[in-house]
From TrEMBL:
Site (Important for catalytic activity): H269
Protein name: Putative glutamate carboxypeptidase protein
GO MF term list: carboxypeptidase activity; metal ion binding; metallodipeptidase activity
Keywords on record: Carboxypeptidase, Hydrolase, Manganese, Metal-binding, Metalloprotease, Protease
Length: 516
C-alpha cells in the first residue's frame, strides 16, 4: 500500500477539503473451508453450454450496449438508471438476490441530482464455501457517431467482415466483462451445476467519473453486505497485446484537473475587442503548454522527485512481459510511440506517471470560422499516479505551479485550479490463492500461462476495497489490448467474450479447490 487515505473533492474551490484517517490493511480471519475438489466434468459441461449458446450471450451484450449509460452527463441520467434496472432484471432471473442502493447526490450541470445507484447482489450462503466478491461498472464513456465511429456506438454491431469483433461503447469497458459473470451464472443454472463459491457482486454506475459515493457505501456496509467476503475479483482492464492473457496486480491512480480561466462576462467579437483585452483562451493555452513536454515529460517541479525508485524485482517483472512494439503500434493505429524500447514503453504505460491534456470546455470547436473570444474556458487534464505520487502531494505541486505560472502571465483574468476527482494508485501481492486460481483457469481456458501486468488505467475504488475490506483483489481481464476502450470503435472480440465467460466459471471452480 503506497498511499493511505482518500481525499474528498471540492467542486467549488481549488483545494482538497478532507482526508480520511490512516487505515491499516485488515487481514481476514482464517475459516476452515470444506475442501471442494475441482471437477473438470462440471466445467466441461459449462463450456459446452457456453459454446452452444453464444448467440444468446451476444444478445445479452447487445441489450446492454443499447442502453447509453454515460455517467457524468445530465442528458443520460435516465439511461444510467435504466442500465441498473436491466442488471437487476437479469440477475433476478438468474436466481441472484439483487437490489439497487442509493449512494448520495452530486452536482450535474448546476443541479443536485442522485448519483447512479449501485447494484448489489448475492447468491449462495454456504459456510463451507469461500465467498467471492466481484466488482464491475455499468456506466460508460461518452460516444458520438460523428467522433469517427464506423457504426452507431450504442448498437452492438458484429463486424460485417467476419472478424468476430463486437463493436459498441462499453463492449469491453465494462459491460462485456460484467455480463461475462452473468453468463457464467446462467451456464451453472442451465446445466444444473452447483456454484462452487458463494458469490457477492457490486456494480457501480459512476466509475468513469470518480466513483463518487462508493467509498462511503463500502465503509457503511463492510460488516453487513460485505461481511464474510474472502477475496475479490475485478474484470475491468485489458491484456497488453492481442494474444497473451494476463493477470493484473497493480493500477495507476488518477488526478483529474480543470484550469478555469474567466475574464469578461460575455463572449466577445474578436474584431471589436481583440487587441484590447486579456483573452482567457490565450492564458489557458499558455498554462496548458507548460504542463507536459512533447516527449511526455511532466514539467511540474517536484513530481519526478516523488516517484518511488524502481526495484530490481520490478524491473525483472517488466522484462518478463511478452510484448512487442508492434502490439502497441497496431493497438493505436500508428508508429507514434515516445520510444522503441519495449521495457521503457511498458514502464511509461504502467510504472511512471503521465500527464494528458484532454480538452477545453467553452472553446469554439465546431466547423466554420466563428470569430469569437470565449469569455471563460476550462482546460482539462489528468495525471496518472504511481507509487508514491498520491492525490494530495501531487495536487499541492500542481496548484502551486499553475498559480505561479499564471502570476507570471500578468493577466487580469481569474484563474482557478480544481481537482475534480482523484484515485490513488494500487498494487497487491500476486502470491495469493486467488491469483493461483486465476492462473490455472487461464492455462485451462486459453492454453497458456498469463503474463503478470500492471494496468496503466485506473479503477479508483480498488484501493478502497482493499483497505476497507482487507481482502486480496485479483484483476482478471477479458478484453484485448486493441479493444479501444474510451476510444472510437470500441470492441470486444467474440472469442474473448465467450472464453472470458468460461474463464470466470473455471476461476470460481479453481478458487473453491484452492487451499486458503
Ligand atoms: C481501467 C478502467 N476500465 C477505466 O477505464 N478507468 C477509467 C477511470 C476514470 C477515471 N476518471 C475517468 N475515468 C480510466 O482509467 O480513465
Ligand atoms: Zn472500466
Ligand atoms: Zn473506462
Amino acid at each position: 500500500m503506497f498511499t493511505l487515505g482518500r481525499l474528498i473533492r471540492s467542486t467549488s474551490t481549488s483545494n482538497i477539503i478532507a482526508k480520511r484517517p490512516l487505515r491499516l490493511q485488515r487481514v481476514s480471519f482464517v475459516r476452515p473451508f470444506t475442501h471442494i475438489p475441482y471437477s473438470s466434468m462440471a466445467t466441461s459441461k459449462i463450456n459446452k453450454w457456453v459454446d452452444e449458446n453464444q448467440s444468446h450471450l451476444i444478445d445479452r451484450l447487445a441489450k446492454a450496449v443499447g442502453i447509453p449509460s454515460v455517467s457524468g452527463n445530465i442528458a443520460y441520467i435516465k439511461d444510467v438508471e435504466r442500465m441498473a434496472e436491466f442488471l437487476i432484471e437479469q440477475l433476478t432471473e438468474l436466481g441472484v438476490k439483487a437490489e439497487t442502493r442509493p449512494v448520495g447526490k452530486h452536482q450535474l450541470d448546476g443541479k443536485e441530482v442522485d448519483l447512479p445507484p449501485v447494484v448489489i447482489g448475492h447468491i449462495g450462503n454456504d459456510p463451507n464455501k469461500k465467498t467471492l466478491l466481484i466488482y464491475g461498472h455499468y456506466d460508460v464513456q461518452p460516444a458520438l457517431k460523428e467522433d469517427g465511429w464506423k457504426f452507431d456506438p450504442f448498437t452492438l454491431t458484429v463486424d460485417p467482415e467476419g472478424s468476430g469483433k463486437l463493436y459498441g461503447r462499453g463492449s469491453t469497458d465494462d459491460k462485456g466483462p460484467v455480463l461475462g459473470w452473468l453468463n457464467a451464472l446462467e451456464a451453472h443454472k442451465e446445466t444444473g451445476t452447483e456454484l462452487p463459491v458463494n458469490l457477492k457482486m457490486i456494480f457501480e454506475g459512476m466509475e468513469e467519473n470518480g466513483s463518487d459515493g462508493l467509498d462511503k457505501f463500502i465503509e457503511s456496509e463492510k460488516d453487513k453486505f460485505f461481511a464474510g467476503v474472502d477475496c475479490m475479483c475485478i474484470s475491468d482492464n485489458y491484456w497488453l497485446d492481442t494474444k497473451t492473457p494476463c493477470l493484473t496486480y497493480g493500477l495507476r491512480g488518477i488526478n483529474y484537473y480543470e484550469i478555469r480561466i474567466s475574464g469578461p462576462d460575455r463572449d466577445l467579437h474578436s474584431g471589436a475587442f481583440g487587441g484590447a483585452i486579456h483573452e482567457p483562451m490565450t492564458d489557458l493555452i499558455s498554462l496548458m503548454s507548460k504542463l507536459v513536454s512533447p516527449q511526455g515529460e511532466i514539467l511540474i517541479p517536484g513530481v519526478k522527485d516523488l516517484i518511488a525508485p524502481v526495484t530490481k524485482d520490478e524491473q525483472e517483472k517488466f522484462e518478463a512481459i511478452h510484448f512487442e512494439m508492434k502490439d502497441i503500434h497496431d493497438a493505436i493505429g500508428g508508429d507514434v510511440t515516445l520510444t522503441n524500447d519495449t521495457v521503457k514503453t511498458l514502464m511509461g504505460r504502467m510504472r511512471n506517471p503521465s500527464l494528458s491534456l484532454h480538452g477545453i470546455e467553452g472553446a469554439f470547436s465546431a466547423v466554420g470560422s466563428k470569430t469569437v473570444i470565449p469569455c471563460s474556458v476550462k482546460g482539462k487534464f489528468s495525471i496518472r499516479l504511481v507509487p508514491n505520487l498520491g492525490i494530495k502531494n501531487t495536487t499541492d505541486l500542481v496548484i502551486k505551479y499553475v498559480n505561479d505560472e499564471f502570476m507570471k502571465l500578468g493577466s487580469k483574468n481569474k484563474c482557478q485550479v480544481v481537482l475534480t476527482h482523484g484515485g490513488e494508485p494500487w498494487i497487491t501481492d500476486p502470491n495469493h490463492y486467488s491469483f493461483r486460481a486465476a492462473h490455472k483457469a487461464t492455462e485451462t481456458v486459453w492454453g497458456q500461462a498469463p503474463d503478470y501486468t500492471r494496468e496503466g488505467g485506473s479503477i479508483p475504488i480498488t484501493l478502497e476495497f482493499a483497505n476497507i475490506l482487507g481482502v486480496n483483489i485479483c484483476l482478471l481481464p477479458v478484453g484485448r489490448g486493441d479493444d479501444g476502450a474510451h476510444s472510437t470503435n470500441e470492441k470486444l472480440d467474440t472469442s474473448n467474450y465467450i472464453q472470458g465467460t468460461k474463464l470466470f466459471a473455471e476461476y470460481m471452480h479453481n478458487l473453491a479447490a484452492e487451499q486458503a
